[in-house]
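Crash report, auto-generated. Payload:
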Amino acid sequence: MSLSPTLLYQILLKKLGNLYWWPIDKNYHKKNKSDPRFEVIIGAILTQNTSWSNVEKALENLKSDRKLNIKSIADANLKNLTKIIKPSGFFNQKAQRIQTLSKLLKDKYNYNLYNFFNRDIKIIRKELVSIKGIGLETADSILLYAGDKPIFVVDAYTKRICNRLPLDTETSYDEIQLFFENDLSKNYEDKILTKVYGELHAQIVILAKDYCRKKPNCTDCPLLKDCMFDDKLF
DNA sequence: GTCCAGGGCCGTT
DNA sequence: AACGGCCATGGA
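Recovered output after restart:
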């Protein structure tokens, strides 16, 4: 029998456990900290084709300058912002991108992420994708990890794993996303779907980095028994 | 030194 | 629709 997204999730959950990516601390007010949802939004853009360790450096720079908030980035001098986020790479485009989005949150939503996220998922997604520099994956990462919305994020790793296992799905972003969501939503309650989608995406990233690499490292792979890919032919 | 990272845009075919 | 070049730092 072939692998389904649900079975994939169950296997990875057993082997890798919960990864708790970008957990949103809802008591951040009491700790006098900045809104963690905004940090997730900025992180989602800074991590485009970039290792997370580099993104962390850029986020630390923003924090130590007290610039990790909507107003500071919206009103920042673009050249200065570029310098601050330099370690994240592609700094010219990324500075522009985080400023464009921050200005939208400032001008149209009055700095209020509740106003921004408390709408239909598809409407928010369309608005995000209409911003130059925010594509489908970045938009969905923001919706899932910052907006707490049940939407499955598809990345290059997901596509690679679908090809290798294989998982029987089409190749376009939206088709792959629907393939995962249709299957998982049949097997899990609505109220935990956001959690399931968030964990599975994170688990797939770990799987692809540690085992299902470009040059595959199948020894000790959690999916060895369930995978049709033959690394001896590679 | 080489490879690659939790993409997206733009131009060409 | 699909593909190539480009953007750039830092760790393995």
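Post-recovery validation: The radius of gyration of chain A is 19 Å.
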